[in-house]
């Protein structure tokens, strides 16, 4: 009879541990999921911002190169006309 009581107590402990583990997992998922979603959203916003900045920098460089080329060509044309 004592052995049965010990076995029953062990089974109850295992069941209780499983219940607690499931409950903790449910609460963690409940609280973690919104944070994971917001983190993913922030990561996407950061990536989009970085790509936008890189595109802007590239366009600025290209614009400066074009401006230099046009200015140089205008200077050369002016010098040719002035001679």
What does it look like?
The protein is mainly alpha-helical and 83 residues long. The chain contains one helix and no strands. The protein has one helix at 2-82. The N and C termini lie far apart (120 Å). The model has no long low-confidence stretch (mean pLDDT 87).
Q: Radius of gyration in whole Å, from Cα?
A: 35 Å
Q: Which residues sit in consecutive blocks of at least 5 with pLDDT less than 50?
A: none
Q: What is the string of SSEs from the N terminus onward?
A: H
User: How many beta strands in the DSSP annotation?
Assistant: 0
Distance between the termini: 120 Å
* Helical residues, percent: over 70%
Percentage of β-strand residues = under 5%
User: What is the helix tally?
Assistant: 1
Average pLDDT level: 87
Could you describe the largest sheet, including whether it forms a barrel?
none
Question: Which structural category fits the helices and strands?
Answer: mainly alpha
- Please give the oligomerization state of what you see: single chain
Global geometry: rod-shaped
Can you tag this structure with a few keywords?
83 residues, mainly alpha, 1 helix, 0% strand, rod-shaped
Strand and helix map with partners:
Layout: H1 2-82
Short description:
The chain is 98% helix and 0% strand.
